Amino acid sequence: MDTDRREFLDDLLSTPSPSGFEIDGQRVWTDYVRGFADEVSVDAYGNAVAVHEGGDDEPSIAFAGHADEIGFLVRRVTDDGFLRLTRVGGSDRTVSKGQHVTVHADGGPVQGVIGQTAIHLRDPADDEVEDVAEQFVDVGASDGAEARELVEVGDPVTFSTTVEELHGDRLSGRGMDNRVGTWTAAEGLRRAVEADVDATVYAVSTVQEEVGLKGAQMVGFDLDPDVAVAADVTHATDNPDVDDSARGPVKLGAGPVVGRGSANHPRVVDLARAAAEGDGIDYQLQAAGSRTGTDADAFFTSRGGTPSLNVGIPNRYMHTPVEVVDTTDLVAVADLFGAMAERAPEFAPYSVDV
Predict the structure, then answer these.
(1) Long-range contacts at 117-125 (CB < 8 A, ≥ 24 apart)
(2) What domains lie within the chain, and their CATH numbers?
(3) What is the per-residue pLDDT across 44-56, written as a single tens digit (0 to 9) for each?
(4) What burial class does residue 57 get, using C-beta atoms within 10 Å of its C-beta: 0-12 exposed, 13-18 middle, 19+ buried?
(5) Residue-wise pLDDT tens digits, 75-127
(6) What's the whole-model pTM score?
(7) Cα–Cα distance between 296 and 300 in angstroms, integer?
(8) How many helices (H) and strands (E) does the chain have?
(9) What residues are annotated to the active site?
């Protein structure tokens, strides 16, 4: 990954973007894609679309990632100056206590910690982790009045974890899910632009995936592409505490994960596999028996059915502050998208043969 692309990735990962509060992150994304897209547009809720205009009679293909991350909201400010929380998306109660957090208040960021009683003071027989609603943030306020001068109910909260480089090409941090997907969508579009492909190609950065695929439902209807491809993280199963026999093997650094079954249209699967094999891109396969759990599930039912595909990016420790990805996988997904855009006309029309 070259310097400019890495800087774009770091900017995405370092910009807080909890569901419902994606504006700052979407600005980073749109500023970048304006450098090569024919047009960039944003809808009322912040879904962002960049386009390479192809030929009039050529198919259109959309590559989408979701901009939002999990987090919390301030639910209540107590009279003694602590903050009670509610979850945004699938926040994990088992990893939140004892973490540094940032409250994104209107007056600017407020630093805090999610309190954890010292091991010396806890009863070992009562060591279960409380639900998020029972946990609290300490911002250092002496009482409720002082705390309310800093924050208010409804302010979003994220972990303060920064991006850290691990050995080799691996990165760790919060919110890899799914700014890495929006990175690959943008980079796939850039590759399509540089190749001047015949197809019309959209890069999409959706909002509010973590709370029910809401942004994809909006933009999928309005955009109405011939093909929609959702780039999202998927569980890597190559770390010691995951049984890959129950989920199927997915390895970090082994390339894009192409879904089969459920929302994954067989013709689009064929396009992805042919593009990967034609360009020498290693890829993995994953079964989706009932749903993908990604924006593909919203895209494929839009407007009576949009041929869709989920392409996974291997990710360890999903929905924690220390998610781990391999940047070679990100580059490979972007390369795959560029190759799919170039071959998209060969596989049209995108329909099953009955």
Answers:
(1) none
(2) 3-69+174-347 (3.40.630.10), 72-159 (2.40.30.40)
(3) 999 999 999 999 9
(4) exposed
(5) 999 999 999 999 999 999 999 999 999 999 999 999 999 999 999 888 887 78
(6) 0.96
(7) 6
(8) 10, 17
(9) 209
